[in-house]
């Protein structure tokens, strides 16, 4: 294992870990640099098991046994070791989950290849909260969705917080980004998917009724935390579905909605 004690924060490869709490900065740097962050032994293990390649690792000395277990097949990966105070100064937060790895970002598959053998997919439109994205992926994995598709303006599923909240399942569930809604609607129909949008719509079908008569292939479409689905997304939907609410509550959090809807569709 290639252990490199940190003597200076100016080392070029340490820039991958600089200011990790600056979301705006990381949105620009991580996709452009072709990397993402995997945090904790479990998440890094899932990333490596998925075929993703670590380009370096950052940790305190006490977590070296974790790195040794993870890097059996990647012995030349640089492992930067520093004190808790030094790592906090570098990253902007207190590292207490063990290893942190900068991973090479894999090339996304085409939407057509993701849909080819799927029957139930979750579509996230313009969701900006990384926690909700990660939770939706965890729900998709746990409840048995075949894939997740996200729009161009949706938060990055490989952002550090998304990966952590998903418990690494974002590294297991097939996913990719969609093109424009016009192209996407044609793509779904070419693969015999019915697009069902979760929306507060007077013509919406109650979820339990829709689940009882669901078509073979369904793309379940969820919108932003505040405004829900955009007009273009609703135009692309073949029908709208609603989860009936009580006590004056009009809707659930988007992550909770994904769990309820997937459970209904996959357990009817």
List keywords for this structure.
Alpha/beta knot; single chain; SpoU_MeTrfase; tRNA_m1G_MTases_N; elongated; methyltransferase activity; RNA methyltransferase; alpha/beta; methyltransferase; 2 domains; 268 residues; seven-stranded parallel sheet; 60s Ribosomal Protein L30, Chain: A; 12 strands; five-stranded mixed sheet; 11 helices
Task: Describe the protein's architecture and organization.
- The protein has 268 residues and is α/β, with parallel strands linked by helices.
- The protein has two domains: 103 residues, 60s Ribosomal Protein L30, Chain: A, CATH 3.30.1330.30; 156 residues, 3-Layer(aba) Sandwich (Alpha/beta knot), CATH 3.40.1280.10.
- It is built from eleven helices and twelve strands.
- Strand 7, helix 7 and strand 8 form a beta-alpha-beta unit.
- Helix 6 runs parallel beside helix 11.
- The radius of gyration is 20 Å and the shape is elongated.
- The model has no long low-confidence stretch (mean pLDDT 93).
């Amino acid at each position: 294992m290639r252990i490199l004690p940190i003597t200076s924060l100016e080392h070029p490869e340490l820039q991958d870990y600089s200011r990790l709490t600056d979301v705006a900065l990381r949105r620009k740097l991580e996709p452009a640099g072709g990397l993402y962050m995997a945090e904790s032994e479990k998440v890094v293990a899932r990333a490596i098991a998925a075929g993703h390649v670590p380009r370096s690792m950052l940790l305190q000395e006490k977590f070296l046994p974790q790195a040794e277990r993870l890097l059996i097949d990647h012995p030349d990966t640089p492992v930067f070791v520093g004190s808790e105070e030094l790592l906090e100064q570098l990253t902007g937060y207190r590292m207490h989950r063990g290893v942190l790895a900068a991973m090479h970002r894999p090339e996304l598959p085409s939407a057509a290849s993701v849909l080819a053998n799927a029957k139930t997919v979750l579509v996230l439109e313009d969701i900006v909260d990384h926690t909700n994205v990660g939770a939706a992926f965890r729900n998709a994995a746990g409840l048995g969705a075949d894939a997740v598709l996200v729009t161009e303006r949706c938060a990055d599923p490989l952002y550090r917080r998304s990966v952590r909240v998903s418990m690494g399942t974002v590294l297991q569930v097939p996913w990719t980004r969609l093109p424009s809604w016009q192209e996407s609607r044609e793509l779904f129909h070419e693969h015999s998917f019915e697009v069902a949008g979760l929306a507060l719509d007077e013509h919406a079908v109650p979820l339990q009724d829709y689940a009882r008569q669901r078509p073979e292939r369904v793309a379940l479409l969820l919108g932003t935390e505040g405004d829900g689905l955009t007009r273009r997304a609703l135009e692309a939907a073949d029908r709208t579905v609603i989860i009936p609410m009580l006590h004056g509550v009009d809707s659930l959090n988007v992550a909770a909605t994904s769990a309820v809807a997937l459970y209904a569709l996959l357990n009817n």
